[in-house]
Specification:
- About 10% of the residues lie in helices and about 15% in strands.
- It has a two-stranded antiparallel sheet.
Length: about 70
């Protein structure tokens, strides 16, 4: 179980066009942290909290070091 998970977002040049974002393109990717409990493996069970109307998910590649 990893102690920390560092994620990278907005990491490719055409991301704004793909998402319909008309704002200026970011110069650098975003870095953000996740906890192991916030992730679900392939075909894992997802539990939606009652306060949420929808789920948001995305991953393209995962790298594990250690």
């Amino acid at each position: 179980r990893p102690g920390k998970i560092i994620c990278v977002g907005i990491n490719y040049a055409k991301r704004n066009a793909e998402y319909g974002n008309t704002g200026p393109q970011q110069k650098y990717p975003n870095l953000f942290m996740r906890t192991p409990e916030s992730l679900v493996g392939h075909r894992g069970r997802i539990i939606r909290p009652h306060v949420s109307d929808h789920l948001d998910y995305e991953i393209e590649i995962g790298l594990v070091s250690g």
